[in-house]
Amino acid sequence: MRLTRWILIAGVIVLSSISQTSLAGAGLATRDLNPVLQPIYLPTQAPVSADNGWRIEHSFFVTNTLQSENRGNESLIIDVENYRYELGLSYRKDQWLAQVNVPFTANNGGELDGLIDSWHDFFGLPEGDRDEFPKDEFDIEYRLDGIAQFSEDSDTSGLGDVSIAVGFESQNEFRYFFGIELATGSESDFSGNEAVDFAIWASREKRIDEEMSLYGLFGISFPADDGTLEGLIVDEIWVAQLGLEYRFDESLVGTVQLDLHSATIEDSDLDAFGESLQIQLGLGFLRFFENHRLDLFFSEDILVGTAPDISFGARLSTGF
Q1: Which pLDDT belongs to residue 153?
Q2: What is the mean pLDDT of the segment spanning 196-220?
Q3: Which residue from 316, 314, 315, 309 is spatially nearest to 110, judged by alpha carbons?
Q4: What is the pLDDT of residues 76-127, one digit of tens each?
Q5: Domain at 172, CATH number
Q6: Of 13, 262, 263, 282, which one is least surrounded by beta carbons within 10 A?
């Protein structure tokens, strides 16, 4: 059994075995930000309030990727800096939950390649193919049997695919969600696949003691086989997140989170389209100002090449 399956099983066992007091708001609503795969709907930790009412979130991600692969009849180059802003709005009424997420994306050559090189050198992280390519260039191309399935070398930007989800929190403190991603993005600027995706997932948050809490998510995405990768996308993608949040004091928490998903492209031997595992490390400032929470975090690919080299994120959230 592959690594992803083992982690999925371990996450389900851990989440179903804890029996302490529940909490809300733990976790980072992140995902694999591979710019080729962003139009695919992958569920993430839902911003849920413990009390009835509304919650709003502003999330901003900067992702820098340089991957080059050649295997068999496939070749891939991803040399891009991706910017993603998400406006999230959620609502709770007793046990019923709802959320809407509106993303905006932009892709260009960027300016962070030098910083990322220094980051990898400082922490002793693998460089991959970075030394072989010029800095701050933009080039994305996927070829199958010599035919370009996905190709872009000009800056792109636009509204992404808006997602809507409805959930229910059961008496055993599991939250069950059904989500749909609408065809609001554009195939021409790679912000959407111009088709409707679906996903189902369950999540749970549990306090272990006064300082520490455990949370997780387990779900399945059903992507539409459309857009620039039409005919290549798998029928279903398994998704899981498992994390630990530690409260240093009343205003500061630290988060360690694992994000993973199964393969996205049918019969591909490329790492970028296979099983993905990355780690998220973050700090949450619970009282950034008034009743606002600020989370700062970054991600690294644990399975090298299965996710972007690094992503930086910030999330500002509040309830009202």
Answers
A1: 77
A2: 90
A3: 309
A4: 988 888 899 999 999 999 899 999 999 999 988 766 655 665 655 655 655 5
A5: 2.40.160.40
A6: 13
- Torsion sign over Cα 107, 111, 115, 121: positive
Three-class SS of residue 13?
A: helix
At 246, list the tokens.
Answer: 């530690």
In the numeric block, which tokens belong to residue 221? 């995405």
Left (φ > 0), alpha (ψ -120 to 50) or beta: where does 136 sit?
left
Contact (Cβ atoms closer than 8 angstroms) between residue 76 and residue 265: no
Contact 242, 258 (CB under 8 A): yes
Cα gap 308→299, rounded to integer Å: 9
User: Which residue range is the domain that position 70 belongs to?
Assistant: 3-319
* Sequence letter at residue 76: L
Query: What is the H or E stretch that residue 179 is in?
Result: strand 175-181
Residue type, 184: T
Give the count of domains, the chain. Answer: 1
Backbone angles phi, psi at 85, to 5 degrees: -110, 135
SS (H, E, C) 167-211: EEECCCCCEEEEEEECCCCCCCCCCCCCCCEEEEEEEEEEECCCC
Say how many CA atoms lie within 13 Å of 232 toward its Cβ.
23
* Three-state DSSP class for residue 124: coil
